[in-house]
Write a structure and sequence with these properties.
Keywords: Membrane, Transmembrane, Transmembrane helix. This protein is mainly alpha-helical. It has helices spanning 3-25, 31-40, 59-64, 74-99, 101-105, 108-113, 127-160, 164-186, 189-192, 199-222, 233-258, 271-287, 318-331; strands spanning 71-72, 298-299, 305-307, 313-315. Helix 1 runs parallel beside helix 12, helix 7 (127-160) runs antiparallel to helix 8 and helix 10 packs antiparallel against helix 11 (233-258).
Length: 332
């Protein structure tokens, strides 16, 4: 494994470990977090208390262990998708380094762009089929985030009135969420398209996910009901960095692919420059949902109902309702 790849993997892994450790070690309501909010106007991305989930740990774990929680936020689900992606990345590269170090030293992607792209770690067995369930879980969380955001947009539309701005905001949200859902459904193809057979097809799967994540991050900043006090300078800086990397990378990759000559390998774009941007994107994609401005949450009520023969709803018996209510309260 070349030195550049070692440094990139080590740096990203360390960043993800630090990100994960904050969930496990930092109390959600500590004095430090309160002071941070006073100084910066918003809570740091590792504190997701405003999302309504109790306890500590990664958001994805808290979602799965609190199935009857009565507050749903799309940002919370998107955060879980990014976390699973980060965990999958570390696992994939660990497995590839152990079982297929030759792939890291020599592969079609590296021949074209001059370094090991993030997706190289997912390209060979056993990493690809072991990580497929995790990629699928990330897809489920991402799809659910987009779908619940559509639900929230419909609710907002019903209360905002028929203004032109309201209609534009609604249509913009729906379009971006549909793009994100389609992108998430295509994400597992990253592990199924063999780069030795179709390097460009393999790369395009990665690019489409990169673009959809960028859109899902940018749109909340231009929606009219975003709270101005939430769009602080750190959030704007994060937006500019994430957007810049997400737009530069696809262009540079495509240039390298188009100009690739197997007889005389050359790289029009500096591989070190691309590698830094590429691996920085992994960290951005893992934590970016924590920097999205917060919107309204969706409140739901769990209860059992019974349907009669005509399909009409009938209230469930009292015991059933009491049990579900108690379970939801216990989860909170």
């Amino acid at each position: 494994m070349d030195a550049l790849t070692v440094l990139a993997v080590a740096g990203v892994t360390l960043g993800l470990l630090l990100y994960t450790s904050t969930f496990c070690l930092v109390p959600l309501q500590s004095k430090f977090l309160q002071k941070y909010q006073e100084l910066n106007g918003f809570l740091p991305p590792f504190n997701r208390a405003p999302l309504g989930l109790p306890g500590r740990g990664l958001i994805g774990w808290r979602i799965l262990t609190n199935p009857l929680h009565e507050t749903i936020m799309p940002e919370q689900l998107l955060c879980a998708s990014g976390e699973v992606w980060g965990v999958t990345f570390v696992l994939a590269w660990t497995l590839t380094a152990i079982f297929n170090p030759g792939t890291i030293a020599n592969n079609p992607i590296k021949d074209r762009i001059g370094y090991n792209n993030v997706c190289v770690g997912f390209d060979t067995a056993p990493a690809n089929f072991i990580c497929l369930p995790l990629i699928t879980l990330s897809t489920v969380f991402g799809f659910a985030a987009a779908f619940t955001d559509i639900q929230r947009a419909v609710l907002e539309r019903s209360t905002d009135g028929p203004s032109a701005r309201s209609l534009f905001k609604f249509r913009l949200t729906i379009c971006v969420d549909i793009i994100l859902m389609a992108s998430m459904l295509c994400l597992p193809l990253l592990l199924l398209i063999d780069p030795t057979v179709s390097p460009l097809g393999h790369l395009l799967v990665f690019i489409q996910n990169l673009i959809s994540r960028l859109l899902s991050f940018v749109v909340p900043f231009i929606r009219e009901n975003a709270q101005r006090d939430q769009i602080t300078r750190p959030r704007w800086l994060f937006l500019m960095a994430f957007a810049g990397i997400s737009m530069i990378l696809p262009v540079c990759w495509l240039i390298d692919f188009i100009l690739y000559d197997p007889k005389q390998i050359s790289h029009p774009i500096n591989p070190i420059f691309l590698c830094i941007f590429d691996w920085s994107w992994v960290i951005f994609a893992t934590v970016y949902s924590g920097w999205v401005p917060q919107f309204e949450a969706i409140s739901i009520q769990f209860r059992l109902i019974q349907l009669n023969e005509s399909g009409d709803q009938e209230n469930a018996d009292t015991k059933g309702i009491a049990f579900i209510t108690h379970a939801a309260s216990a989860a909170i």
